[in-house]
Amino acid sequence: MIKDTQSSVDIRKITIDRVGVKRVRHPLSILQRDGTPQASVAYCDLAVLLPAEQRGTHMSRFVELLNKIDTPLTAKNFTALLHTMLKHLEASQGGIQFEFPFFMQKIAPVSKRESLLDYKIILSAEQTKVTKVTCTVVVPVKSLCPCSKEISEYGAHNQRSHLTVTVAWNDSFSIEELIELIEAQGSSPIYSLLKRSDEKYLTEYAYNNPKFAEDLVRDTAAALDADTRFPCYKVEAENFESIHNHSAYAWIEKSNN
Fold first, then answer.
1. Which of 32, 49, 58, 239 is the most interior residue, by most CB within 10 Å?
2. What are 70-84's pLDDT values in tens digits?
């Protein structure tokens, strides 16, 4: 028998809120809108509450848990994974976070050329008094400044922006649906592959659809409010300003209380 040092009694009597592993790279797959899996690689954080009387947790069990994942992620089995972790670690509280790129096929507006665009996804499951499961999506869009357009004789400054939306995750919606809802709120979408005809179209489209960071978060919040699948959310907009050495930022949060 090898001594289990982690399970020995700690005399300091101080509870540790979270202990575990962080930024473990691990392959995973997630179900797409059409029911097929998309393969990706995630940075995985797994942690649990450690009671005051226990010296350490069993770190190897976190990695063992990751290696037992053999089906595409859904909201249902992601929640089950959290509960399995708590059982194996004999913990009352804990959390899991997976961060990974998700790719969507985009079609250029004029040339119709196809290309893939990546979006950052963060799935989080947390158990305290209740279980909370969320999906965060970071969607790049283009924003064009209404003030710049109004005061300039020609042109207007514009930039790439990130719309970050966090919602309660369940299997009533696909990641693609959420991305498309968010993407529609920018001055224009962003694409990996564009020909000259597409660039002309998007430049003019954005010019006719100027938006402040404030407009981005309000429009996104309004779109989420119009969809009963998203009763609570957090919306953030960050404009990486082209004429400043800082970002413009806005956020709106709606709880389900």
1. 239
2. 999 999 999 999 999
**Pairing, β 158-168 against β 131-144:** antiparallel
Give yes or no for a contact between 161 and 227, defined as CB atoms under 8 angstroms apart: no
Strand ranges across the sheet with 94-107: 16-31, 37-50, 94-107, 114-127, 131-144, 158-168, 233-240, 247-254
CATH class of segment(s) 16-254? alpha beta
pLDDT of the residue at 5: 77
Mean pLDDT, the chain, rounded, equals 96
Phi/psi of residue 201, each to 5°? Answer: -60, -50
| Predicted confidence (pLDDT) per residue in 190-227, tens digit | 999 999 999 999 999 999 999 999 999 999 999 999 99
Q: Distance (Å, rounded) from C-alpha 123 to C-alpha 231?
A: 18
**Alpha helices per DSSP H over 57-193:** 59-67, 75-88, 146-151, 175-183
